[in-house]
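TOKENISED FOLD:
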Amino acid sequence: MGEHPLMTVISLEEFAEKCGKSPRQVRRYIADGLIQAVRGKHGYAIPLEELSKLGTSDGRPADTSMAGERTDPMAAERTTSADMSTTEMALAGLRMAQEQTALVLDQLRVTQDSRDRAERQLELVRGEYRQAQLALTESAESLSQREALWRQSEAELRQHNEQKMALWEAEKAEMLKDLETSRKRVDWLEKRVPRWVRGLFGAK
């Protein structure tokens, strides 16, 4: 241990004992620049005044759990303001996202409503098309039935006329035959009736 005309220095071990820390922790303080020390042949020499930097006086150890920390009220206020600004920005972003989501949902509902209306209109058009197709089918069937009935009636009428014509021709032939028979009988009778009798009736 050595002395300086202007200040008293102690060894690292003595400094550690006075501040209640281990020599290793004191070396850490020196490396971090928390206390000043001079390294000599026999180790570190630390001014006794450096104890005040650790919150000690006259060799009485103090609680140094907060040693090296400095509290800046303005910095704390700025940190709090920054945290509040970040929170407000996050909340604003969340509200904007919610509004955009609501807008997208509204657009989706409008699109769904338009799609439903289009499907209903399409179903109405399909119903009208089916009705028109059914009406055309019924008309076609009715027309076909009418044409079939007309052809059937025409065939029946032709057959009836043919039968009538055949019957009339048969009756005509029978009448001609009867007429011919009657004529032959008249001729036969004329040949057997005397002339004077025929003269009574104006016959020749």
